[in-house]
Structures are given as C-alpha cells and as structure tokens.
Design brief:
Number of helices: 12
Strand order of the largest sheet: 1-2-3-4-7-10-11-14
Distance between the termini: 39 Å
Oligomer: single chain
Number of strands: 14
Structural class: alpha/beta
Largest sheet: 8 strands, parallel, barrel
Helix content: 25-40%
Shape: globular
C-alpha cells in the first residue's frame, strides 16, 4: 500500500516543465477523456462519441503509420465522428534502440521520420516504453475473478519462473540508461521541431530486473533522472496511475512531483504492489483515491489526455480479448484489458469525476468535444 502522508518525502522539482501545454489540437485548460479503440473501426468510433470520449489514441505495440498522409487519413476518419486523434501509443519499432544493438541508428532515423509525420498530421503525443522487447508487460494470469465474476489480470512472483533467461541473457542498468540517453538526445530535437511530445511509459511490472533483464523506469526518482537527461518539455512521460500504484507510491503526491512533464495519463488501478504481487481492479475499487488524483491533475494545470487503460473482461457478454483484429501486444490469457465493454463503465465513472472536479461548464464532453 502507499506510504502515509507523514512519511512521504517532499522533494523540490529539478527539471523544467509547466502545464497547461499548448498542444497542436487543444488549447483548453482541462484534461480530456481519451480511449484506444479495439478494433479501430467505425462502430467503436461511434460508441466512443456516444459515451463521452472526445479523443482517440491510435494503439499498436509493434509499429505505426510512418507518413503524414496516412496519419492525416486516420485523423480525418476520427474527426468525421467528432473525435480528435491526439496520440499514438506504441510507436515505431525500437527493440535495437533499447538494447543498444547494431541497427539502432537506422531505427532512430525511422523514429524521427514518424515524429515528423505526426507533426505534419497534427497529432501531438507519442507514447512509448523502454522495456527489453523479449519481456515487456508481464502478468501471471489474465483470468482472475474480481467484482461480480468479471475477469482481470494479476502478477504473483510465486507463480512466475524468474530463473528463465531470454536470448538477451543478463543486461545491466548502466547499459539501459546509456541507451535511453542516446535515444533521447537523438529524437527530442526532432520532436521539438515537429511540435510532438514524447511520453515514456513506466515499466510494467515496475521491478528492477525480470528474468535477468534490467528495467530502469520503475520509480518516481528514475523518472526524474529520465526527464533530466534531456530537460525539454518534449521529453515527457505517460503517467500510468496503475504502474505508479504498483510502485507503492502515493499517486496525488507523485503527480505533483513529476506530473508537470506528463502528456498522457493512464487511469487505472490495482490492489498490491510489484514487489508483493498485485491484481488489476475496476477503476473505482483499487487502492488509489481517484478523485484526489484528478484534483492533483487539476492543481498542476494538466490539460492533456487521460484514458481508462486496462479494464476487466465481462464473461458471458464478450469473448476473450478484443473482437475482430486484436489489440496488438497482449496475446496471453483471457482478460487482456483491451476489450470494449468494460470501457463503457470506466468512461462513465470518469465522466462523473470530471463533473465533480471540473464542473459541467468546462469538464463535460460537450465543452471538450471537437
């Protein structure tokens, strides 16, 4: 569980950054509710608009369109339903970049090309992670019963074989930090020029090593170090409230600590920690005070996008995973977190919080829609 307030350190911010941010497609003062669409089709765009989503996140853990023309087509398709296309999540391949392998410079050049294409298309946020490709997001089950028999995912060390090694063998934290610095120094100037904000996602689970693979973005202190590597507002983070909750930190305080450089928020929660084990929950029943978290985002002036992220599976009403083409990157088990029905509840819960924290005049879907 999170530390009590009396024991939490209060540190002075050591990096630049201030919200609100002048995004290319939004200059308002409030955050907006976004969502991935699995699958990315007209039916789900219509559903998103109906339930009060205003912004879309293009999601693919392995690749993305690399031309401005392709991205403009996607943006215009969203706009035909009254939705903004505000982020790409996953982004271009960067497995060689993360491990500092031969070929990383070619991947970086392709990455810069994609950043430039996003700038041309007016899509302001690119979310990525910096985990070794041979073991990224980890769970030990995707079919754990939670409220009412809904299925969710969990992480339990006692159910995980950490003696296995991938083809990467053992990797070091120093090498990972060197690779991250090399990457950021190469791409952030291009992001600044294109008006695109990079948003690095925490490691999940946020544990220093898994199967011999070093993981470096596992604490607020690590993110402060990452933000200082290239001290630019365009070098930012995806503040996954679920991952930070897995770290065992106090979410509202951590928002005040590093949220000034967040450009994207994942609004999910867990019970437990990465060290002791955790289960993912519905957005309204985890260990975080979600209203206090949203009030912290308001306090620092955040006006980016917030999406509900992982949601439980509703057996009997939907099958495992997404329908039609799968949300790429999550193939194990039944409750991938990327089915659509659970998002209807999550967005409704979030809309109620927006009304309570921001008021109907500025926080409603009507006030924030395209």
């Amino acid at each position: 569980m999170a530390e009590p307030a009396s024991k939490r350190p209060h540190t002075k911010r050591t990096f630049c950054g201030q919200h609100p941010t002048n995004y290319s497609n939004w200059q308002g003062s409030t955050p907006r509710i976004a969502s991935v669409l699995t699958p990315f089709n007209d039916e789900n765009m219509r559903l998103a608009a109906q339930i009060g989503i205003t912004d879309v996140v293009y999601y693919d853990m392995d690749t993305m369109p690399s031309s401005g023309a392709e991205l403009k087509q996607l943006r215009e398709r969203c706009e035909s339903f009254g939705l903004r296309l505000s982020a790409v999540e996953g982004g271009p391949p960067m497995d060689l970049v993360v491990q500092g392998k031969p070929g990383r410079d070619e991947q970086i050049q392709h990455y810069i090309k994609c950043i430039e294409a996003m700038g041309e298309a007016g899509i302001p946020v690119l979310c990525y992670n910096f985990m070794p490709w041979s073991f990224r997001v980890g769970r030990t089950s995707y079919e754990v019963p939670i409220r009412g028999g809904a299925l969710s995912s969990e992480w339990r060390w006692e159910h995980f074989d950490d003696t296995i090694r991938t083809e990467e063998g053992e990797t070091t934290h120093d090498d990972m930090w060197a690779s991250l610095e090399y990457f950021l120094k190469a791409v952030i100037p291009a992001a600044e020029k294109a008006g695109v904000y990079l948003a690095c996602h925490p490691d999940d689970p946020p544990f220093p090593k898994v199967r011999g693979l070093a993981r470096i973005l596992t604490s607020p202190k690590a993110f402060e170090r990452m933000l200082q590597l290239v001290d630019s507002p365009h070098n930012g983070l995806t503040f996954c409230q679920g991952c930070f909750s897995e770290m065992g930190v106090h979410i509202p305080d951590t928002i005040r600590r590093v949220g000034h450089r967040a450009h994207f928020v994942h609004f999910r929660d867990v019970k437990g920690t990465a060290e002791d084990g955790f289960v993912e929950t519905w957005q309204d029943e985890g260990q975080t005070d979600m209203k206090a978290a949203l009030e912290a985002w308001k306090e620092i002036g955040f006006n980016g996008i917030i999406r509900p992220d992982h949601v439980p599976l509703l057996p009997g009403l939907e099958g495992g995973h997404a329908t039609e083409e799968k949300a790429r990157g999550y193939f194990s088990g039944k409750a991938s977190g990327y089915t659509m029905l659970g998002r209807i509840f999550a967005v409704g819960y979030m809309r109620g919080l927006w009304d309570a924290v921001f008021g109907r005049a500025s926080g409603s879907a009507e006030a924030q829609r395209l």
